[in-house]
Amino acid sequence: MNETLRYLIFFMLTTPALGWAADCDKAKISYLLETAAAQENIYAVQFALDLGANPNGVTEAISIKCFAGMPTASPVMHAASHEDTGILKLLLKNGASANVGCCDSSALQIANENKNPEAAKLLKEYGANY
Predict the structure, then answer these.
(1) Torsion of CA 41, 84, 90, 100, to 10 degrees
(2) CATH number at residue 73
(3) Which among 65, 82, 113, 128 has the fewest CB atoms less than 10 Å away?
(4) Under DSSP, is residue 130 helix (H, G, I), strand (E, B) or coil?
(5) pLDDT tens, 58-78?
(6) Per-residue model confidence (pLDDT) at position 14
């Protein structure tokens, strides 16, 4: 089994969320998705999506409620920075928003800054406009 996937499964099963609601359990899976996207592990991304991860990642409100405000970033933001667009395609096909942003930047801007025209084109095809 891939080491990253093993880590993600371990994290999901052992890390307690601070909140008590079921949405915190789902948030852990969505955080796994963010981690998998950041580490460019398409198999772990698919695994997290299969488990019901939100393709847009963890919202700020859920981060505050479940993870004491731990910073998070959209999986699409991570994927837009990678040369291989496989993860980006997978996320977008599973309903992730192409119009995501953080810290005065957007996924489209990140793709352009990383000189990744294929990612920029894909984001535009899915409606990115900033």
Answers:
(1) 100
(2) 1.25.40.20
(3) 113
(4) coil
(5) 766 666 677 666 667 788 888
(6) 56
